[in-house]
From TrEMBL:
It comes from the Bacteria. Signal peptide: none annotated. Coiled coil: none annotated. SUPFAM superfamilies: S-adenosyl-L-methionine-dependent methyltransferases. CDD domains: AdoMet_MTases (cd02440). The lineage of its organism: Bacteria, Candidatus Sungiibacteriota. It holds the Pfam family Methyltransf_23. It comes from Candidatus Sungbacteria bacterium RIFCSPHIGHO2_01_FULL_47_32. This is Methyltransferase type 11 domain-containing protein. InterPro entries: SAM-dependent_MTases_sf (IPR029063).
Length: 185
């Protein structure tokens, strides 16, 4: 259930991601969430959207296909089959983030783009206060965080997955509490 600030934080992530999506792209949203909000917001822009999440209802709706799946080891997606993969507010929840990054590299077409948002270590105490004391963001989401990131942490994981350092750009946003990264295959 959304708390007071959850929709605003989601909106800020979507707005940032949207500017990196080319018209007609095939987009895979890993960890799309029950309502696949990011994919739905991209509908007029993309040719096809695929959402994978453990809680999503499977099926097709227009140019969106939703698949139920765990995000820990493999993706049910053909090799070199998508233009863009989005991974927004997901990587911090995974026990083995390196494995999913390798899978993302596999499914991206040559020249494809991975877009990631993750919370930084600076965000941890703020998120905990917002969740546990003020109750304005979802407590369960914060409790489920396995890790937080600095640029070097995420860069190491991306390089380990196959991305080249010179094709990775990163920037802090939301007052340094989140990290936005774009990696080209």
């Amino acid at each position: 259930m959304d708390r007071l600030l959850d929709p605003l934080l989601r909106f800020l992530r979507v707005r940032r991601v949207r500017s990196y999506i080319s018209r007609g792209a095939v987009v895979l949203d890993v960890g799309c969430g029950f309502k696949a909000r990011l994919l739905r917001s991209l509908l007029p822009l993309i040719s096809k959207g695929i959402g994978i999440d453990m809680d999503v209802p499977e099926g097709e709706e227009g140019n969106i296909t939703l698949k139920k799946g765990l995000l820990e080891k493999t993706l049910d997606q053909e090799t070199s089959s998508v233009d863009v993969v989005t991974l927004t507010a997901v990587l911090e929840h995974l026990q083995y983030p390196e494995d999913i990054l390798k899978e993302i590299y596999r499914v991206l077409r040559p020249g494809g783009t991975l877009i990631i948002t993750v919370p930084t270590w600076a965000a941890r105490p703020v998120l905990e206060v917002l969740a546990y004391k003020l109750h304005v963001i979802e407590e369960g989401e914060i409790r489920d965080h396995k890790r937080y990131f600095w640029k070097r942490d995420l860069s190491r994981m991306l390089v380990s997955a196959g991305f080249k350092t010179e094709h990775i750009t990163q920037a802090y946003f939301e007052a340094g509490f989140n990290l936005f990264a774009v990696a080209k295959k």
